Amino acid sequence: MSLKRRQFLLFSGLSTLAAFVSAGKSFSRQINPNFAKKDLLLRFVSVADTGTGARGQYNVAQAMTSYHSKNPYDLIVLAGDNIYNNGEIEKIAEVFERPYAPLLKQNVKFQACLGNHDIRTDNGDKQVKYPDFNMKGRYYTFSRGLVQFFALDSNDNADWKNQLPWLEQELSRSQATWKVVFGHHPVYASGVYGSNPAFIQTFTPLFQKYGVQLYINGHEHHYERTRAINGTTYIICGAGAGNRPVGKNEWTKYSTTNLSFAAYEVYADRIEVSGIGIDNRVFDRGIIPLKST
Predict the structure, then answer these.
(1) Is residue 21 part of a domain?
(2) CATH number at residue 216
(3) Pairing assessment for the beta strands 252-256 and 270-277 based on DSSP bridges
(4) Predicted TM-score of the model (pTM)
């Protein structure tokens, strides 16, 4: 057999083997979406300012459903303005149950907090009692494995006199590896409203004192991820139905007006964050370490 003939057979065999291995890997990923992620502790997503019932909300909801089909999750942090324009619970089918029907049918659990639009009717009381928002009160906490979440009422008329001592007490007694706080209003933001000086003064030292690694919010209709500020990363996911302009600050790692949601994969030593648009593409990736220097 000539040398060229032997080389041809060798290369053909290697190509066939490579194709077989590639197909096997592809098949493995199809039957196991967590392939190569055996150390994953929790996957969840967050979105805010959703409750319009319009095309933008449906587009983001479809992207969330598409992500779920490849990367299963059973928790959504819903960070306020759940029902536009005035928080009328009578609109709940239009602005929540229908847009998220595919996820609700797969037992994905929403954990909501109140936004400024939500309190315009009955001060949001009916939303607090709505079963599929899973709110234990206007502010509350819940845990998923090594992650403890703290939901806040960040509105001007919130019961701050009792809520802040409650938050500090819950943070101080928490034994969770990961502490995630969420509310509707931003602490740091580069959008239309900008940062909240009072929240910076209140929350930044509190989060640093008790090791809060992540704060999630909406209100600003854009996506923004900060660098770690005194150990805490701040993520805005308020482009869940509509969008507005956004700029950058010295602490901004990524910002965009894209209609989008945020996805989080929690590991023992890090949280991997992804910003995902309605084209199903990941436009931002970041790492939140367990402890920042």
Answers:
(1) no
(2) 3.60.21.10
(3) unpaired
(4) 0.88
